[in-house]
Amino acid sequence: MKILVTGSAGFIGSELSLHLLERGDEVIGIDNLNDYYDVGLKKARLERTVAYKGYTDIHVDLEDREAIAGVFKKYKPECVVNLAAQAGVRYSLENPLAYVDTNILGFANILEGCRHNNVEHLVYASSSSVYGSNTRMPFSVHDNVDHPVSLYAASKKANELMAHTYSHLYRLPTTGLRFFTVYGPWGRPDMAYFRFTQKILAGEPIDVFNNGNHQRDFTYIDDIIEGVIRVLDRIPEPDPDWSGDAPDSATSTAPYRLYNIGNNESVELMYYIEVLENCLGKKAEKNMLPMQPGDVQATYANVDDLVRDVGYKPATTVEEGIARFVDWYHEYYAV
């Protein structure tokens, strides 16, 4: 297939592009290479994909309406995977308008490109953050998610609503994927596990929020990619059992679906840090801090729908995943 991947220099976008290219797909990659984190790392990721003759590298902003329309018109992708976004819950407290520009306006431009160019399937990244104030575990895609606690989360919920509208009005098949705390080699330096590694190796204290009482459904990058590809290859259809008397938020009378992609396991942050310490062979000095605004106590993914529809369930343990990340970190940074 000819597949447009946005955020192609990002953590997930780069890995997805590689896997698609390796199976023989043609990939048109879009990224603006912004400086939210180390641009050098983004360029190093890109070096792996531009080596393939089936890869086209394009540097534009999603919010540039004319440029995005031009990409769709020129390349005519059959499918689109939208992974570009302004990421980070904490940064959304400082710079909320960046999330409006990229995550809402930019996504609207992607939806319009799909609508006007007969795209067969749009898959887009949502987030476990949409569950917000929910405390019933594990989180189900059939649960109400009307109480986000950060603008990042609200922008992702908005994406789900926008996608549904296009699925309903224009019969554009869309699938939203709620990712749960993705980690692994080539990851994002703004993520806690990455910062922990940097500071532990440098002998500096790490900031542990909520006094270490967080629990997260940590999901290894390869498991995320496998889930994305399986979902990409399954174009959603209207749910014949959907009823307006008991509306299900995960399905629709339109060709629309939502899935969680998580490890289906909630791991205590302090245990995660302990595993990281063991892999690094060095103990962390911990600066215990209160919970930050916009954060949540725990995440835990119910993946029953993913298992039922595409026959897949992430299974990489944190012990395996962290060890692979640490090996990559040592090699990439030569430390």
Textual characterization of the structure:
The protein is of the alpha/beta class and 335 residues long. Helix content is 41%, strand content 15%. It is built from 11 helices and 13 strands. The protein has a 7-stranded parallel beta sheet, with helices on both faces. A two-stranded parallel sheet has the order 7-10. A two-stranded parallel ribbon has the order 8-13. Helix 1 crosses helix 8, helix 3 packs parallel to helix 5 and helix 5 packs parallel to helix 6. The longest helix has 21 residues. The radius of gyration is 19 Å and the shape is globular. The model has no long low-confidence stretch (mean pLDDT 95).
